Sequence to fold (376 residues):
Amino acid sequence: MSTELYNKIYEFLTTAEDKKINAISVVYLGMKEDRWIEQNELRTVVNRAVDSANNRYMEDQIRKNISEVKRKLGKDTLPLYQHLYSGVNKISVQELTWKDSLANQIIRDNLDLIQELSGNLKKAFMKPIRSMKPVPIPRIKDMCKRFVSNFLSENLSSLPYELFHTKEWKESEDKLEEITLKILETLRSVWRNPVFRSEFVGTMNEGTYVNNIIVLLINACLSNNHFGESAFITMFERQSIASADRRGDGRVGRRPDIMFISKEDNKYYELMYAECSRIICTKQKEEDDDIKLWRECNDGLYWADELEVHRYYKLHETEIPIRYSNDPSILADFIYTLLLFRNTLIVNMSLLRCAHDRRSNRNLDSSTVTSPPPNS
Fold:
């Protein structure tokens, strides 16, 4: 393989303006250096140069992101941020890849540097998520118990302002009970659907699962909501407008499986992204979807806190009861999850309304590290 040709292509890829880099210009450069070069040899040289340039670009981008995180953390003298700064400073940039949240300026709650914090410091970092989770309502649990116990014997026949996450429900128990009934009615049809029996779930495609369970339950959860007629659910991987705006230069935005969008003052807010898979999927698919989800959230982020350090939390985890179970606790926890989702959306939309007046910082640049091309 021609080392001289490789060096020239690599130099071109790493120094030329982005708008000048395309397949034709690279092939032209190769033919210009050696017009008799064989096609397979040229392909090998180009692929190697592209891989090397891509790795260098990612390393530089990750190093820049880590420096930016340390700069932001260094602006605050609180012990929490000083400890986080020290922890980030000890991490070797060479050990990070585009798959790591920290390489994308996201301090995630499952990172070692968070898990290794002392009790009070870890409690301070996790404070935002604790205030989002109200205590489960006993009446809702009782409803779930009655629903499960009676199931087999049944016949077949405008948003408030100035809301904050205060560990409280923003709607009355009567209202939440009404929403719970709608969710249970949706689950009733799911439980009676033969397609979700054990003999079929292994071969069921993603579309059937999303259309017949996920979207229906989200619709039930958000019924009679405070967002009015300007809120809607999209699916089939509609392009995220926020992601396209953040990525800029006419680039295509990311495409979540499901989005919940609300219109306010002639502006569309993407309040929810969802990634789904088949009911039975591989561990790799779960990991890939997890990465895809936080990357979508990072690109779609509109407002940030004063420190502008992106955080990513697992608010709650639950099992989706796609078939009848005589264990009411599973159902109760799932209902709690959907009500928590509804409660969080209501507060978040209220916060966005207020953010206009406070002129919070707008995120104009994305910190998401560019992922390598397929099969790299």
